[in-house]
Amino acid sequence: MTQALIVIDVQNDFCPDGALAVPSGDEIVPGINALMQQIPCVVLTQDWHPGDHASFATQHAGKSPYDIVDMPYGPQVLWPDHCVWGSAGAAFHPDLHTDPADLIIRKGFRREVDSYSAFFENDHVTPTGLEGYLRNRGIERLTLVGLATDFCVGYSALDAARLGFDVTVRRDLCRAIDLDGSLAAAEKSMREAGVALV
Q1: Are residues 54 and 111 in contact, defined by beta-carbon separation less than 8 angstroms?
Q2: What would the pLDDT profile of 114-161 be if each residue is shown by its tens digit?
Q3: I want to staple 156 with a disulfide (CB 3.0 to 4.6 A). Which of 82, 107, 118, 128 is the partner?
């Protein structure tokens, strides 16, 4: 068992009618469920924010969603309030099979720093613990799916490649926000890092 499937943030708030909906985000769920049956180790990630999270536009006077501000760890897109812990929006999509998951990683729960990657907070220093889990399981190859290609999936793939994992992103089982060309930029960065986009 050297392969793991990492399912990124398939949550209600990232699906149609959610607070930060990714277009057609729900369409990938059946394919992800099927893929879970083919890969022996399954990890789910879950965006999990306090209601006053610093990445929320509502926490910054005079700012609107999708504005960019400078945080101590670098530029930060300000988002609509989303995936507030314990809320219906933070729950996994109801059709996503969660029983096959070996592990659920929650990220973004520290108020002062956002977390796109499954491996590190946006300061690129604070770990989520996923790397250690995978190393202890002897995992070397990762397949990433989920939401959104140009943010949480992309950041996770780049970190995984930097950590030395063999990384594949299933583009057919991801969907993107595509904010001002962010999808093309993310895919370019992933290819340059050696991530396979299939």
Answers
A1: yes
A2: 999 999 999 999 999 999 999 999 999 999 999 999 999 999 999 999
A3: 118
Known catalytic residue: 152?
yes
Q: Give the dihedral of Cα atoms 146, 148, 152, 157; nearest 10 deg.
A: 60
Annotated catalytic residue within 47, 81, 83, 107: 107
Neighbour-count burial of 94, counting CB atoms closer than 10 A to its CB (0-12 exposed, 13-18 middle, 19+ buried):
exposed
Q: Is 6 helix (H, G, I), strand (E, B) or coil?
A: strand
Category of 190 on φ-ψ map: left (φ > 0), alpha (ψ -120 to 50) or beta: alpha
Whether residue 107 lies in the annotated active site? yes
The alpha-helical segments, DSSP class H, found in the chain are 29-36, 130-136, 154-162, 182-192
For the full predicted model, state whether its pTM sits above 0.85.
yes
Cα 32 to Cα 96: distance, rounded to the nearest angstrom: 8
Active site residue 47: no
Residue at 151: amino acid letter: F
